[in-house]
Predict the 3D structure of the following.
Amino acid sequence: MKRANYFAKKTRIIFLLTLTLVASLVLGGCNNGADSTSTKPQQDTPQQNAPSESNTGANHENSSVSSSQLVKEFETLVQGTEGLPQAFHFIDEHIEELSSEDASHVLLALEDVQIKELAGFVNRYFKGTIQEQITSLYKIDDSIIDLIDKTSDESLKSLLTETQDSGYLLATAEGMFAPVIDYSKVSPYLEKANDETKAYFELREAESKKPSLRDATLVISWEELLNRGLAAERFTTKYPNAVRIKEVISLRDNYIMTIFYGANNTPLFSYDTKLMDSEARKTYESALSTNAEHTESSLMKDLEAFMSTAAKENYKQTEALKKLQSKFAPFVESAS
């Protein structure tokens, strides 16, 4: 029975830690590296003639290699063993040689491979005594580097190092540990990317650095939650045909769901009194009072209607407010 409970908990933890990425995979139509056209920027540079020799991963100091040829080398590289650590090394060496569109393509292709390889990395953290070893070492706010420095177990040190070098960090849920993509590792390369790709990774990095939810609890402020929702909405408006538009829509909808409902352990309306959270109320009213910059925002228009009704209901959840929640965040019902 204990073993059955362990595997049930493991399944739940994997689900909690990778929920956003799983949604991205489903909505993104399996954009997983193998199909390079899935991440090719919409306004691509003309294909240049490749050099006669492939020289994958070779030193290019004494040769003129086109941006498009470097993309081909990168795509070959990430299909090999230990592709992710090598991929980061390759980008470090060659990002300045890539055109803006090719740099964007490479960074999105890198994310594709990270998503594809993530499940395998997660499973490795549930083998043997890995969870127990990390638990014995971990202190609040420890980074993966801290854990590498702390452990004397060479096997665990190797796993943690490979995880970090592959662009992941460790996240916790219900006292267990598993890797998720560390989007801050892409940040140094974003100046070479196009505006669309840069905006996409900035959305991802904000959630990667400080997840909005942990253990069904809102762990950022209501103000930050609203700002992230608005940022995701702006992306979908500005880049309706973006390569990652479905992923950003999923991210936006998750934020909107939390804005109008809260989380299981941080509900917008108290389970006991049915009254609106005071901090949420203050945040929403303040945002609406300075709404000039959000005149074209559907989210702010919905929030204005919601708060207007809430005021009439003395900020207590009623059937009228429940109907508005269902109207403004209908995907909650479809996901249940």
